[in-house]
Specification:
The chain is mainly alpha-helical. It is built from 3 helices and 2 strands, in the order ββααα.
């Protein structure tokens, strides 16, 4: 599912970034570009990051 339409970032890509070493929302944002335009997706993006970090 697309989390960020502006940058075309999916929840899978966010998880992937975390599995590859990102350990904060900020790092995920820098790695994927999520929430760097309109910012409307920030809430959902943060939630995916939180859930994924909680899982590992
Ligand atoms: Fe993510 Fe606009 S939907 S920055």
């Amino acid at each position: 599912m697309y989390v960020c339409l502006c940058q075309g970032v999916t929840d899978g890509q966010i998880r992937e970034a975390i599995y590859e070493g990102c350990c904060s929302y900020r790092e995920v944002r820098e790695a994927t570009g999520v929430a760097t335009q309109c910012g409307k997706c920030a809430c959902v993006a943060k939630q995916v990051v939180r859930e994924t970090l909680g899982d590992i």
